Amino acid sequence: xxxxxxxxxxxxxxxxxxxxxxxxxxxxxxxxxxxxxxxxxxxxxxxxxxxxxxxxxxxxxxxxxxxxxxxxxxxxxxxxxxxxxxxxxxxxxxxxxxxxxxxxxxxxxxxxxxxxxxxxxxxxxxxxxxxxxxxxxxxxxxxxxxxxxxxxxxxxxxxxxxxxxxxxxxxxxxxxxxxxxxxxxxxxxxxxxxxxxxxxxxxxxxxxxxxxxxxxxxxxxxxxxxxxxxxxxxxxxxxxxxxxxxxxxxxxxxxxxxxxxxxxxxxxxxxxxxxxxxxxxxxxxxxxxxxxxxxxxxxxxxxxxxxxxxxxxxxxxxxxxxxxxxxxxxxxxxxxxxxxxxxxxxxxxxxxxxxxxxxxxxxxxxxxxxxxxxxxxxxxxxxxxxxxxxxxxxxxxxxxxxxxxxxxxxxxxxxxxxxxxxxxxxxxxxxxxxxxxxxxxxxxxxxxxxxxxxxxxxxxxxxxxxxx
Length: 468
Prior knowledge:
By secondary structure, the protein is mostly helical. It has three domains: about 30-145 and about 275-360, no CATH class; about 170-270, no CATH class; about 380-460, Orthogonal Bundle (Type 1 dockerin domain), CATH 1.10.1330.10. Helices cover about 35% and strands about 10% of the residues. It has 15 helices and nine strands. The strands form four sheets. The protein has a three-stranded mixed sheet with strand order 1-2-7. Strands 3-4 form a two-stranded antiparallel ribbon. A two-stranded antiparallel sheet has the order 5-6. It is globular and about 65 Å long.
């Protein structure tokens, strides 16, 4: 009997060890920062980056650059991004075959999203993630800073040049521009990006989700979903239906409401937690949600969206304004930029990590579809103190610790990115708070918890404010 018990224990330990080995380790505590001192970049640690940025600065003197020190080891990043299904590409893209594809998925004939998408190799991920492969005019707009830069005076005339002669130029364009500028500032979003994204989503004439007709109480009413939020589906009818449901739920019965609501959504979902470039939206290398909060699975998403934005700006002669770009830096980067995978040879390298993307909050494989607000509810553990804020899986009620102060929502006696993530989950409706936690989350003391409190905590972490 005792022997059987020992065997059982050994078996359980072996199973646990096997499960752990399937998941690449995450770096739980790193120091991350943005820095505008381009000349201070260490060439030995980050080879080639400084000269490439300086070259862009010479060609585009109005552009501003920052680097973002991720604090993450390059090989660890690629390992984590190589979960099966975390990065995929269209199955029918002839230019992306051979070494672009994950060998084991290809051997098993495994596909994603109804067979239209296939898993890419670690080599392909390395190529797409290495910033040195994109520090050229054609691809750099994927690094455009999407948050509001306090050092820049945003020009309404630039926004007008983007939106002039479009579906918003209906006699009220100046009013819409004021709405965009004022609300973007309030929510810490780049208004130039918002203006360009409107054209990305709706074109210049306005798509089917811009103005949608429905009937309420026997009367014809209209709802607007300018940013195509939740506009998903396999058919145009399904896309329009889902877009209308979302706009109706949010009460977006005017253009202004759709603009402010869409800006709120963009700010709360990604920008407020530090994923403030298209690159960071795709490749989640931001603490604390490492690798699990990506806007899309398409490995080409950041490059494609950046290219679309550049072409929009080119069309209105607006590429040479005072834009700010944020370039990611990794520890132990390869000495040379990662090579583009061959499309003719067969990938014989080690296959991607053998696990599904269960823990990945993705939107859709389609680069034009919108963010899914699903957020995994997990334990948030402070690695320094070992304190854990847990969530009751039955009620969704977050359990607080005692002696909390304003901003310290998790109750670990400090205000950090865990509090930011915890508040975002609350705003998305994934958890509930105790009364004490609500008091801690109400950073502006207006007796309600909303995106303004999220912005306050983010500003505190960035050193823009010292207290609440």
